[in-house]
Amino acid sequence: MTKQKSNTLSDSEVQQRLRAIGLRPTRQRLALATLLFAQGDRHVSADDLFKEARANGIAVSLATIYNTLHEFTAKGLLRAVSVDSLGTYFDTNASDHHHFFFERSGHLQDIPKNNVHISSLPQAPKGTKVSRVDVVIRLKD
Amino acid sequence: MTKQKSNTLSDSEVQQRLRAIGLRPTRQRLALATLLFAQGDRHVSADDLFKEARANGIAVSLATIYNTLHEFTAKGLLRAVSVDSLGTYFDTNASDHHHFFFERSGHLQDIPKNNVHISSLPQAPKGTKVSRVDVVIRLKD
DNA sequence: ATTTGTGCAAATCGTTTGCATCTGA
DNA sequence: TCAGATGCAAACGATTTGCACAAAT
Protein backbone atom coordinates (compact mmCIF):
# COMPACT_ATOMS: atom_id res chain seq x y z
CA MET A 1 0.00 0.00 0.00
CA THR A 2 1.47 3.13 -1.21
CA LYS A 3 1.36 6.19 0.94
CA GLN A 4 -1.92 7.88 0.18
CA LYS A 5 -2.11 11.28 -1.31
CA SER A 6 -2.84 13.91 1.31
CA ASN A 7 -1.01 15.33 -1.55
CA THR A 8 -1.79 16.44 -5.03
CA LEU A 9 -0.50 19.94 -4.88
CA SER A 10 -2.64 22.33 -6.80
CA ASP A 11 -1.53 23.31 -10.24
CA SER A 12 -0.88 26.84 -9.15
CA GLU A 13 1.32 25.69 -6.31
CA VAL A 14 3.42 23.62 -8.62
CA GLN A 15 3.41 26.42 -11.14
CA GLN A 16 4.82 28.85 -8.63
CA ARG A 17 7.39 26.39 -7.50
CA LEU A 18 8.64 25.97 -11.04
CA ARG A 19 8.70 29.69 -11.68
CA ALA A 20 10.57 30.17 -8.43
CA ILE A 21 13.42 28.06 -9.68
CA GLY A 22 13.41 29.64 -13.10
CA LEU A 23 11.66 27.01 -15.17
CA ARG A 24 8.75 27.75 -17.38
CA PRO A 25 5.70 25.83 -16.16
CA THR A 26 4.96 23.87 -19.27
CA ARG A 27 2.31 21.18 -19.46
CA GLN A 28 4.75 18.32 -19.11
CA ARG A 29 6.85 19.87 -16.37
CA LEU A 30 3.71 20.58 -14.41
CA ALA A 31 2.42 17.07 -14.89
CA LEU A 32 5.73 15.45 -14.03
CA ALA A 33 6.33 17.60 -10.98
CA THR A 34 2.87 16.76 -9.76
CA LEU A 35 3.46 13.05 -10.21
CA LEU A 36 6.84 13.19 -8.56
CA PHE A 37 5.93 15.15 -5.50
CA ALA A 38 2.38 14.01 -4.91
CA GLN A 39 3.54 11.00 -3.01
CA GLY A 40 6.14 10.68 -0.30
CA ASP A 41 9.79 10.03 -0.91
CA ARG A 42 10.51 7.89 -3.90
CA HIS A 43 13.37 6.71 -6.04
CA VAL A 44 12.31 6.74 -9.65
CA SER A 45 14.16 5.85 -12.79
CA ALA A 46 13.53 7.76 -15.98
CA ASP A 47 11.71 4.75 -17.31
CA ASP A 48 9.55 4.42 -14.19
CA LEU A 49 8.43 7.99 -14.57
CA PHE A 50 7.87 7.57 -18.28
CA LYS A 51 5.58 4.60 -17.70
CA GLU A 52 3.82 6.31 -14.86
CA ALA A 53 3.18 9.34 -17.00
CA ARG A 54 1.72 7.31 -19.82
CA ALA A 55 -0.37 5.35 -17.34
CA ASN A 56 -1.83 8.64 -16.22
CA GLY A 57 -2.56 9.74 -19.73
CA ILE A 58 0.18 12.32 -19.81
CA ALA A 59 1.70 12.67 -23.25
CA VAL A 60 5.40 13.16 -22.84
CA SER A 61 8.44 11.78 -24.61
CA LEU A 62 11.31 9.95 -22.96
CA ALA A 63 13.68 12.71 -24.01
CA THR A 64 11.58 15.21 -22.13
CA ILE A 65 11.52 12.94 -19.11
CA TYR A 66 15.31 13.00 -19.06
CA ASN A 67 15.49 16.73 -19.64
CA THR A 68 13.04 17.40 -16.87
CA LEU A 69 14.65 15.04 -14.41
CA HIS A 70 18.01 16.68 -15.00
CA GLU A 71 16.65 20.18 -14.76
CA PHE A 72 14.90 19.36 -11.51
CA THR A 73 18.08 17.82 -10.18
CA ALA A 74 20.14 20.83 -11.18
CA LYS A 75 17.67 23.05 -9.40
CA GLY A 76 17.77 20.99 -6.26
CA LEU A 77 14.28 19.53 -6.45
CA LEU A 78 15.63 16.03 -6.92
CA ARG A 79 18.79 14.20 -6.11
CA ALA A 80 20.39 11.75 -8.50
CA VAL A 81 21.60 8.51 -6.98
CA SER A 82 23.31 5.70 -8.75
CA VAL A 83 24.77 2.56 -7.32
CA ASP A 84 26.49 -0.09 -9.33
CA SER A 85 25.90 0.70 -12.91
CA LEU A 86 22.24 0.00 -13.11
CA GLY A 87 21.11 3.36 -14.36
CA THR A 88 20.20 6.37 -12.28
CA TYR A 89 17.49 6.82 -9.72
CA PHE A 90 16.08 10.23 -8.95
CA ASP A 91 15.29 10.68 -5.29
CA THR A 92 12.38 12.98 -4.52
CA ASN A 93 13.98 13.53 -1.16
CA ALA A 94 16.66 16.04 -2.01
CA SER A 95 17.77 16.56 1.57
CA ASP A 96 20.96 15.24 3.03
CA HIS A 97 20.54 11.56 3.80
CA HIS A 98 21.90 8.14 2.99
CA HIS A 99 20.71 4.86 1.49
CA PHE A 100 20.26 1.18 1.98
CA PHE A 101 20.84 -0.69 -1.23
CA PHE A 102 19.26 -4.11 -1.67
CA GLU A 103 21.78 -5.90 -3.81
CA ARG A 104 19.42 -8.53 -5.06
CA SER A 105 16.67 -6.27 -6.29
CA GLY A 106 18.66 -3.14 -6.93
CA HIS A 107 16.16 -1.30 -4.76
CA LEU A 108 17.02 1.78 -2.69
CA GLN A 109 15.66 2.91 0.67
CA ASP A 110 16.32 6.16 2.48
CA ILE A 111 18.10 6.21 5.80
CA PRO A 112 17.26 9.24 7.90
CA LYS A 113 20.28 11.46 8.13
CA ASN A 114 20.68 11.20 11.87
CA ASN A 115 20.87 7.43 11.77
CA VAL A 116 24.36 7.54 10.38
CA HIS A 117 27.14 9.42 12.08
CA ILE A 118 30.50 9.83 10.55
CA SER A 119 32.83 10.75 13.34
CA SER A 120 35.95 11.41 11.38
CA LEU A 121 36.57 12.37 7.83
CA PRO A 122 39.90 12.81 6.11
CA GLN A 123 40.61 16.32 4.94
CA ALA A 124 39.77 17.04 1.35
CA PRO A 125 42.76 17.12 -1.00
CA LYS A 126 44.12 20.65 -1.39
CA GLY A 127 42.32 22.67 -3.96
CA THR A 128 39.09 20.80 -3.50
CA LYS A 129 36.15 21.01 -1.20
CA VAL A 130 33.63 18.45 -0.17
CA SER A 131 30.53 18.60 -2.24
CA ARG A 132 28.70 15.83 -0.48
CA VAL A 133 29.30 12.60 1.37
CA ASP A 134 27.35 9.60 0.17
CA VAL A 135 26.98 6.53 2.31
CA VAL A 136 25.46 3.41 0.82
CA ILE A 137 24.85 0.41 3.02
CA ARG A 138 24.73 -2.55 0.73
CA LEU A 139 22.45 -5.32 1.90
CA LYS A 140 22.53 -8.97 1.12
CA ASP A 141 18.87 -9.87 0.95
CA MET B 1 53.66 7.66 -1.32
CA THR B 2 52.46 5.13 -3.71
CA LYS B 3 53.61 1.63 -3.24
CA GLN B 4 56.62 1.26 -5.46
CA LYS B 5 56.73 -1.38 -8.03
CA SER B 6 59.16 -3.93 -6.81
CA ASN B 7 56.56 -5.32 -9.02
CA THR B 8 56.26 -7.36 -12.09
CA LEU B 9 55.47 -10.53 -10.35
CA SER B 10 56.98 -13.53 -12.02
CA ASP B 11 54.76 -15.56 -14.27
CA SER B 12 54.86 -18.46 -11.90
CA GLU B 13 53.74 -16.32 -8.99
CA VAL B 14 50.78 -15.06 -10.92
CA GLN B 15 50.10 -18.53 -12.19
CA GLN B 16 49.89 -19.88 -8.68
CA ARG B 17 47.70 -17.07 -7.56
CA LEU B 18 45.25 -17.80 -10.32
CA ARG B 19 45.26 -21.51 -9.62
CA ALA B 20 44.73 -20.78 -5.95
CA ILE B 21 41.44 -19.11 -6.68
CA GLY B 22 40.37 -21.73 -9.15
CA LEU B 23 40.99 -20.00 -12.44
CA ARG B 24 42.99 -21.59 -15.20
CA PRO B 25 46.08 -19.52 -15.86
CA THR B 26 45.50 -18.79 -19.50
CA ARG B 27 47.65 -16.45 -21.54
CA GLN B 28 45.29 -13.54 -21.27
CA ARG B 29 44.46 -13.97 -17.61
CA LEU B 30 48.14 -14.14 -16.83
CA ALA B 31 48.89 -11.07 -18.86
CA LEU B 32 45.99 -9.09 -17.45
CA ALA B 33 46.71 -10.06 -13.86
CA THR B 34 50.30 -9.04 -14.35
CA LEU B 35 49.30 -5.67 -15.74
CA LEU B 36 46.76 -5.07 -13.02
CA PHE B 37 48.88 -5.96 -10.04
CA ALA B 38 52.29 -4.87 -11.18
CA GLN B 39 51.67 -1.34 -10.07
CA GLY B 40 50.20 -0.03 -6.84
CA ASP B 41 46.53 0.59 -6.27
CA ARG B 42 44.63 1.64 -9.34
CA HIS B 43 41.12 2.20 -10.57
CA VAL B 44 40.81 0.92 -14.09
CA SER B 45 37.89 0.80 -16.45
CA ALA B 46 37.47 -2.10 -18.83
CA ASP B 47 38.46 0.18 -21.64
CA ASP B 48 41.57 1.41 -19.83
CA LEU B 49 42.73 -2.13 -19.40
CA PHE B 50 41.87 -3.00 -22.96
CA LYS B 51 43.98 -0.16 -24.30
CA GLU B 52 46.77 -0.90 -21.89
CA ALA B 53 46.82 -4.51 -22.99
CA ARG B 54 46.98 -3.60 -26.65
CA ALA B 55 49.68 -1.05 -25.92
CA ASN B 56 51.68 -3.84 -24.39
CA GLY B 57 51.18 -6.09 -27.34
CA ILE B 58 48.80 -8.39 -25.57
CA ALA B 59 46.16 -9.79 -27.88
CA VAL B 60 42.91 -9.93 -26.01
CA SER B 61 39.33 -9.08 -26.87
CA LEU B 62 37.15 -6.66 -24.99
CA ALA B 63 34.77 -9.47 -24.13
CA THR B 64 37.59 -11.31 -22.42
CA ILE B 65 38.57 -8.15 -20.56
CA TYR B 66 35.09 -7.98 -19.14
CA ASN B 67 34.99 -11.67 -18.34
CA THR B 68 38.32 -11.50 -16.60
CA LEU B 69 37.54 -8.36 -14.65
CA HIS B 70 34.33 -9.92 -13.40
CA GLU B 71 35.96 -13.21 -12.52
CA PHE B 72 38.69 -11.44 -10.60
CA THR B 73 36.08 -9.39 -8.80
CA ALA B 74 34.04 -12.45 -7.92
CA LYS B 75 37.17 -14.07 -6.54
CA GLY B 76 38.03 -11.07 -4.44
CA LEU B 77 41.09 -9.94 -6.35
CA LEU B 78 39.40 -6.73 -7.43
CA ARG B 79 36.60 -4.59 -6.21
CA ALA B 80 34.06 -2.97 -8.50
CA VAL B 81 33.25 0.65 -7.82
CA SER B 82 30.83 2.84 -9.67
CA VAL B 83 29.79 6.36 -8.94
CA ASP B 84 27.29 8.31 -10.94
CA SER B 85 26.59 6.36 -14.01
CA LEU B 86 29.91 6.67 -15.70
CA GLY B 87 30.67 3.01 -16.11
CA THR B 88 32.49 0.80 -13.65
CA TYR B 89 35.97 1.10 -12.24
CA PHE B 90 37.81 -1.92 -10.95
CA ASP B 91 39.88 -1.18 -7.90
CA THR B 92 43.02 -3.25 -7.53
CA ASN B 93 42.79 -2.56 -3.83
CA ALA B 94 40.17 -5.08 -2.78
CA SER B 95 40.46 -4.32 0.92
CA ASP B 96 37.89 -2.42 2.92
CA HIS B 97 38.29 1.26 2.23
CA HIS B 98 36.50 4.30 0.87
CA HIS B 99 36.86 6.84 -1.94
CA PHE B 100 37.22 10.44 -2.87
CA PHE B 101 35.42 11.19 -6.10
CA PHE B 102 36.52 14.18 -8.14
CA GLU B 103 33.29 15.32 -9.70
CA ARG B 104 34.87 17.24 -12.50
CA SER B 105 37.12 14.54 -13.83
CA GLY B 106 35.25 11.50 -12.64
CA HIS B 107 38.48 10.33 -11.04
CA LEU B 108 38.62 8.14 -7.92
CA GLN B 109 41.14 8.10 -5.10
CA ASP B 110 41.38 5.68 -2.21
CA ILE B 111 40.91 6.82 1.35
CA PRO B 112 42.64 4.59 3.88
CA LYS B 113 40.04 2.78 5.91
CA ASN B 114 40.99 4.26 9.23
CA ASN B 115 40.54 7.79 7.97
CA VAL B 116 36.80 7.44 8.02
CA HIS B 117 34.92 6.39 11.11
CA ILE B 118 31.26 5.74 11.14
CA SER B 119 30.15 5.90 14.71
CA SER B 120 26.59 4.83 14.32
CA LEU B 121 24.81 2.81 11.75
CA PRO B 122 21.11 2.04 11.58
CA GLN B 123 20.24 -1.60 11.95
CA ALA B 124 19.79 -3.50 8.74
CA PRO B 125 16.17 -4.18 7.78
CA LYS B 126 14.97 -7.54 9.09
CA GLY B 127 15.88 -10.41 6.87
CA THR B 128 18.93 -8.69 5.48
CA LYS B 129 22.48 -8.31 6.52
CA VAL B 130 25.06 -5.73 5.68
CA SER B 131 27.22 -6.74 2.82
CA ARG B 132 29.39 -3.66 2.80
CA VAL B 133 29.29 0.03 3.56
CA ASP B 134 30.50 2.33 0.85
CA VAL B 135 31.41 5.92 1.56
CA VAL B 136 32.10 8.26 -1.30
CA ILE B 137 33.27 11.78 -0.57
CA ARG B 138 32.38 13.82 -3.59
CA LEU B 139 34.73 16.69 -4.29
CA LYS B 140 34.14 19.88 -6.15
CA ASP B 141 37.45 20.42 -7.88
C1' DA C 1 8.02 37.82 -32.19
C1' DT C 2 11.27 35.50 -29.52
C1' DT C 3 12.77 32.41 -26.71
C1' DT C 4 12.41 28.05 -24.69
C1' DG C 5 10.62 23.45 -24.64
C1' DT C 6 9.17 19.11 -26.89
C1' DG C 7 9.01 14.88 -29.79
C1' DC C 8 11.02 11.66 -32.65
C1' DA C 9 14.37 8.98 -34.39
C1' DA C 10 19.01 8.17 -34.92
C1' DA C 11 23.32 7.97 -32.59
C1' DT C 12 26.42 6.89 -28.45
C1' DC C 13 28.47 4.36 -24.85
C1' DG C 14 29.42 0.80 -21.83
C1' DT C 15 28.48 -3.81 -21.34
C1' DT C 16 26.59 -8.45 -22.50
C1' DT C 17 25.48 -12.40 -25.32
C1' DG C 18 25.51 -16.15 -28.83
C1' DC C 19 28.16 -19.10 -30.95
C1' DA C 20 31.96 -21.13 -33.46
C1' DT C 21 36.64 -21.92 -32.60
C1' DC C 22 40.79 -22.64 -29.70
C1' DT C 23 43.49 -24.25 -25.68
C1' DG C 24 45.06 -25.94 -21.22
C1' DA C 25 45.13 -29.96 -18.26
C1' DT D 1 39.74 -35.68 -25.05
C1' DC D 2 36.99 -32.02 -23.47
C1' DA D 3 35.45 -28.77 -20.18
C1' DG D 4 36.59 -24.30 -19.99
C1' DA D 5 38.21 -19.97 -22.39
C1' DT D 6 38.38 -16.69 -26.11
C1' DG D 7 37.11 -13.73 -30.13
C1' DC D 8 33.99 -11.53 -32.95
C1' DA D 9 30.10 -9.33 -34.10
C1' DA D 10 25.54 -8.58 -33.18
C1' DA D 11 22.39 -7.34 -29.49
C1' DC D 12 21.30 -4.38 -25.54
C1' DG D 13 19.72 -0.92 -22.28
C1' DA D 14 20.25 3.49 -20.56
C1' DT D 15 21.01 8.01 -21.95
C1' DT D 16 21.99 11.76 -25.30
C1' DT D 17 21.71 14.41 -29.48
C1' DG D 18 20.07 16.84 -33.77
C1' DC D 19 16.69 19.10 -35.65
C1' DA D 20 12.01 20.53 -37.12
C1' DC D 21 7.85 21.81 -34.82
C1' DA D 22 4.98 23.68 -30.98
C1' DA D 23 4.14 26.43 -26.97
C1' DA D 24 5.06 30.04 -23.41
C1' DT D 25 6.02 34.89 -22.46
Annotate the secondary structure layout:
Two copies of one chain form a homodimer.
Chain A: H1 11-20, H2 27-38, E1 43-44, H3 46-55, H4 62-74, E2 79-81, E3 89-91, E4 98-102, E5 107-111, E6 117-120, E7 129-140
Parallel strand pairs in A: 4-7
Antiparallel strand pairs in A: 1-3, 2-3, 4-5
Helix pairs in contact in A: 1-2, 3-4
The structure holds a DNA duplex (25 and 25 nucleotides).
Task: Give a quick precis of the structure.
Chain A is an alpha+beta fold and 141 residues long. Chain A has helices spanning 11-20, 27-38, 46-55, 62-74, and strands at 43-44, 79-81, 89-91, 98-102, 107-111, 117-120, 129-140.
What is the CATH C level class of chain A, in words? Mainly Alpha
**What class do helices, strands and sheet pairing of chain A give?**
alpha+beta
Q: CATH H level of chain A: which superfamily? A: Winged helix-like DNA-binding domain superfamily/Winged helix DNA-binding domain
Question: What is the topology, as strand order, of the major beta sheet of chain A?
Answer: 1-3-2
Largest sheet of chain A: 3 strands, antiparallel
| Subunit organisation of the chains | homodimer
Shape of chain A: globular
